[in-house]
Q: What sequence folds into this?
């Protein structure tokens, strides 16, 4: 058992929620250990803000701030209070035992009195075979315009963006810096994006819209050459030549590693036991940020819930934590 790490508090995730939780927990002398993630094609340490060029709605930044700059500042502030960080994923948990048990992608086994899950959400794909193949081989399909859009591959091309929310409008506007034309493909005849983002897209001379259309096929061998569109009203099919395609149709919560250890909502987000709190179905396990928020999904609300989770974890530990749970279980058995 000497290779098992024993911790008061483990925080899984490194977006606004995770780092805010770490700042509060570290200042409360809980000595938090953060697993910030190992990174993938669509998710890296720092979360979704690492893929955002300009954050204009976070209080305290009147001129705006880049998502990368903001998340580095969050991280540095957590480190200032001696937060420890491991750049690995948590791939397995056992929340049925005390202390709680977690296993990392690097093979580390951690026992913790309390856990804060702040793993955020990841990009959704259309689920088309050639979409996935071209995305994985760098063939011009991506779920992150800010990550890949500046590559020479996309310059002076006609670029497609699938989606109708704020993320899709941000991707479309971002790609106007590099593309000859940006075509927004949306399954409805109106956008879900905020009014200000809609207006920016409507006003931009490089952006046009394909309304009531869905992508049914992605064409191209080594690189994308175009897509097949189907009209959601008439069923009519058409071809659209493209030199790049960005998918911006929302996100799914990063809860796969939980494997039934926490109660989830029907859409996969963690169900909170108490409204407007962060406690989950397992005592001592708290959830913060987009992994539990399927409504707001904003950096400022994620940070706020990270604060809440740390405060709740601190108070839970101060009132007996796992010992209290075991005592209650023993009393129930009697």
A:
């Amino acid at each position: 058992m000497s290779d098992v790490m024993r911790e008061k508090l483990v925080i899984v995730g490194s977006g606004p929620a995770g780092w805010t939780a770490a700042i509060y927990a570290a200042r409360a002398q809980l000595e938090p250990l953060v697993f910030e993630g190992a990174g993938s094609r669509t998710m890296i340490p720092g979360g979704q803000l690492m893929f955002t060029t300009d954050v204009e709605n976070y209080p305290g930044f009147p001129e705006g701030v880049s998502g990368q700059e903001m998340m580095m500042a969050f991280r540095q502030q957590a480190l200032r209070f001696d937060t420890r960080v491991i750049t690995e994923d948590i791939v397995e948990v056992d929340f049925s035992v005390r202390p709680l048990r977690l296993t990392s992608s690097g093979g580390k086994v951690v026992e913790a009195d309390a856990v804060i899950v702040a793993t955020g959400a990841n990009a959704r794909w259309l689920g088309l075979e050639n979409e996935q193949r071209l995305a994985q081989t760098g063939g011009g399909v991506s779920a992150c315009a800010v990550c890949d859009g500046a590559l020479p591959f996309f310059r002076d091309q006609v670029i497609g963006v699938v989606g109708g929310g704020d993320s899709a409008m941000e991707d479309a506007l971002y790609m106007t810096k590099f593309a000859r034309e940006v075509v927004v493909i949306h399954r409805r005849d109106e956008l879900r994006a905020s009014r200000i983002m809609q207006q920016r897209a409507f006003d931009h001379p490089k952006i046009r819209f394909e309304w009531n259309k869905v992508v049914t096929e992605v064409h191209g061998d080594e690189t994308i050459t175009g897509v097949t569109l189907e009209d959601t009203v008439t069923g009519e099919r058409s071809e659209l030549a493209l030199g790049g395609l960005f998918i911006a149709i929302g996100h799914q919560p990063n809860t796969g590693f939980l494997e039934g250890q926490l109660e989830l909502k029907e859409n996969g987000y963690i169900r909170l036991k108490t409204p407007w709190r962060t406690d989950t179905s397992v005592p001592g396990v708290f959830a913060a940020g987009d992994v539990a928020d399927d409504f707001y999904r904003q950096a400022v609300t994620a940070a706020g819930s990270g604060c809440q989770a740390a405060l709740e974890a601190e108070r839970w530990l101060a009132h007996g934590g796992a010992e209290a749970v075991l005592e209650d279980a023993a009393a129930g058995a009697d």
Residues 299-318 form the longest helix (20 residues).
